[in-house]
Amino acid sequence: MSLSDTPAAPDPSAASAPGAGSESPTAALAEPTQKVTARWVTGLVLVNVGINAAFFGPINVFIGQQAIGIDEANKEAILSLVTGCGAAVSLVANPLFGALSDRTVSGFGRRAPWVLAGAVLATAALLAMSGATAVALMVLFWCLVQLGANAAYAAITAAVPDRVPVLQRGGVGGLAAMGQTVGILLGAVFGAVVSGNFMVGYTMCAAALLFSVLPYLFHRNDPPLPREARPPFTWTGFLRGFWISPARHPDFAWAWLTRFLVNVCNQMIIVYLLFFLRDVLKHEDPALGVLTLTGIYAVMVMITAVIAGPWSDRLGRRKPFVIGSSAIIAAAGLTMAFFPVWTGALIGAGILGVGFGAYLAVDFALLTQVLPLAADRGKDMGIINVANSLPQVFAPVLAFLAVTYFGGYLTLFTTAAVIGLLGAVFVVKIRGVD
Q1: Has residue 224 been placed in a domain?
Q2: Distance separating alpha carbons of residues 282 and 227, to the nearest angstrom
Q3: Which residue range is the domain that position 233 belongs to?
Q4: Carries keyword Membrane (predicted)?
């Protein structure tokens, strides 16, 4: 893998921007026209499974259990601190590793080296996390998990606009969303199976992540970037590239904002789920309750994702799906707010799954259609992924304030619903995609 400077070369991005035709000087930067194979999609889906198991097993169950063991009286604050610090790392890591993968010159391809390196780092950090006995160590190791997992996620996300033609992206996005959901469900299964032994749970998450990337690496379809096709490097240009002007690229800006708001809504609904079941619903086995709710959520996400994504491909329309699914996600928050009983939680989980499945599939396809330049796909998708990571900073803080100071879980879930509705409203501002 090489990231060093190369002699000045013409910037290929203008010729290879979406819709530019076939003048691209290299397969790595060309706008894809050939459909990807089922084997390649399977590898992509499995990477998403592993990364999300590594993320959400700890977030939904193990970090909370670890926090209870260290200081039960301050468990909410510990959970918010650890997840918030990790999310802050991901804010930098995702666009940074995306940008580095854009410039990577390797016979192994541009994206695959970062998928492998990120998975190895996150695996090691998860194993270290299992033995953390102090809050500071939890913060350190979770930040390393986020660093590695986001390197892998930035690379695998950029592989989609690299290799998947526009009219296949809704379907592939739906399958990727299914993979994310299976990963979340797998994390919940780990949480229920280990019966409170979070050390074993972290080990299971680490193994799932490491083995999940192997099929993609063996069948990666990741054309290498020729040295002469890489633009010259300057620190000023590299750092300036992380700013995408809303005035010049308004569709990109509105797409980023709506994704951020919907993800804040979703994170606020789920971040204290373990504590909500334990402290409000008085569930006799909160970890099993999380698994049950996650299972319902997962089934509905997988159904709606694989239906809505290809449906939007056939219609050539994205915005109506995104608007409707955002409103459904908001409705899940209202259900949890005004029906704080086990039945209400079950219904809320189902509604959240219906909305988020359609949203994940179709919004992902929409986002790939508003990227400014093909040469910067990794960096730009990394910036888009900040809209997934930043809510992990905001949502725990908002959740902590709502639950501790401003009315409890009613305020938490109602606020989440309002934020989700704003995300639905702002989608109409996107003009370049129907």
Answers
A1: yes
A2: 60
A3: 38-429
A4: yes
